Amino acid sequence: MKVETERLENCQMALTIEVDEERTQRALRDVARRISRQAKIPGFRPGRAPYHVIARYFGKETLYREVVDELGDDLYKEALQEIGIEPFRPATLADYDIEPLVLKLVVPLSPVVELGDYHQIRLDSEPEAIDEELDRILKKIQEENAFWQSVERPAQWGDMVMVDIEGKIRGKTVIENEGSQLFLESESTDPLPGFGEKLLGMTPGEKREFTLAYPEDYADEDLAGQQVRFSVQLHDLKEKVLPDIDDDLARTVGDYETLEDLKAELRSQLQAEAEERFAYRALNALVEQARVEFPPVLLEEQIDDLLEEFDRRLRRQNLNLENYLAMKKQTKEEFRKEIAPQAEERLKLALVLNKFIELEGLEDEPDATRKAMERLAAIARGELEEPQMTGRPSELEDTEEQVVEEE
């Protein structure tokens, strides 16, 4: 058996295997005997047809294809052992020739990840508006705990009203609602554009009449452009009351004794989120300076993972990927191409982070990913100028291929 290799781009290797003629002929005759026992060949009992008859009846190409199917795995393993290569993923058969039998395979190799001198990475800390974000969260909590209170005053934007509504077109009632609750906001089109503005200034117990028109492009052509005479009776008027941002509010949202306890917890969360954002900025800076190569099969696997994640999210909304693509009028292959850049970005981040974990000697550490991100952030701030490795310092310059599995 003759084996030749050729390094290809994107961490792949072309592997050519030329099979000995004696082994090929032996395999061909074994295949022919099996076929003769299983197939009906005119003029011969099962298993009795000679090789040349079977080859002529079924064609040499068929026999060679069967040989490739039967011997392919063994030939591949023997070739790998001979050249001493460890594939990263299973090889694919690109082509084969006959007479002589030559198999041509493409073998994925381990990704190549070179980080360079990452201890020189420096990033400026972006000012984090912790106090402003804290105020925004507290106001959101305040809004979520607001309540409505009846008031005796003229209606204004932002109020909630309870009204009886009657709308007529040329004496015929087209709208009739009793006890309707409406939120007065300028963008509202319920029941018609401009309706809320007509209620401004009304007080509880007041009755008001006015005229509005349906839009010219209204869906119901019989009503489009028609003038409606409204009669509205206002029964109740409520305004939103915001609770004070104080200890009582803090106790309503969690196990906090005081507002300061709530603020301290929120501030801690915001600072942790800011630290995480900085760490990811450092990781992206590391990716930008790194040399990363990987076999195409690894990107396909990452795309598969993204598709599965997306399908799971859709199923939580009672949809699935097939429904989604049908609505978008898009094929699965088109969608794979669309998300390929996102998958590639995620893959590079994972490969670089795992290489960093390896070089920093964190593989066996609990929470290795978290510790690696914290260390990378510290490096980017200039807090760790010296390498943290206690062994194998030469690995910082090692450019040989490494098998990097995604975390």
Explain how this protein is built.
By secondary structure, this protein is α+β, with helices and mostly antiparallel strands. 43% of the residues lie in helices and 20% in strands. Strands 6, 7, 8, 9 and 10 form a five-stranded antiparallel beta sheet that branches. Strands 1-2-4-3 form a four-stranded antiparallel beta sheet, with helices on one face. The radius of gyration is 37 Å and the shape is elongated.
Strands, total number: 11
How would you describe the shape?
elongated
Which structural category fits the helices and strands? alpha+beta
Distance between the first and last residues' Cα: 39 Å
Low-pLDDT segments: 388-407
Q: Tell me about the biggest sheet?
A: 5 strands, antiparallel
Beta-strand content: 15-25%
Could you write a compact summary of the structure shown?
With 407 residues, the chain is of the alpha+beta class.
